Amino acid sequence: MKINLLVIRTKEPQELKNQYELLGFHFDYHRHGNGPFHYASEQDGFVLEIYPLTKSMEKADSSLRLGFDIQELKTKISYLENSNWKIISEPKETEWGLTALIQDLDGRKIELKNK
Asked: Could you tell me which residues are beta bridge partners of residue 103?
């Protein structure tokens, strides 16, 4: 089994899209049928979509934790330090390899692993 789709919701889709682009995602802006406009990025059979909150949602779910493989992790973290990403932990060797932990605008934690 392989994950092929992840949808995250936010109050600020444009700002969150800009933030994830700093990780290397490239987004298109579109919608399906009568659904809401949203951002979508497809890489290697994986689609990340950023949708606005639904009318019944007051805030984004910050309990979701994501993980991405990143090339040149140390360089990427240095770059992200000058952005709106919050660096939770600098790159360090773990049993899974060189990893770092960052947090997006909605409070989601993202584990970055050196590819």
From this structure: 86, 109
pLDDT digits (tens, 9 = 90+) for 31-52: 999 999 999 999 999 999 999 9
pLDDT of residue 36: 95
Q: Is the pTM of this model over 0.90?
A: yes
Side chain identity, residue 78: S
Q: CA of 110: how far to CAs of 30, 37, 38, 44, 46, in Å?
A: 25, 24, 21, 19, 16
The reply to whether CATH 3.40.228.10 applies to domain 5-114 is no
List Cα–Cα distances, 108 to 30, 36, 85, 102, in angstroms.
Answer: 24, 22, 11, 8
Rounded Cα distance, 49 and 92, in Å: 29
Q: Is 43 helix (H, G, I), strand (E, B) or coil?
A: strand
Domain range list for the chain: 5-114
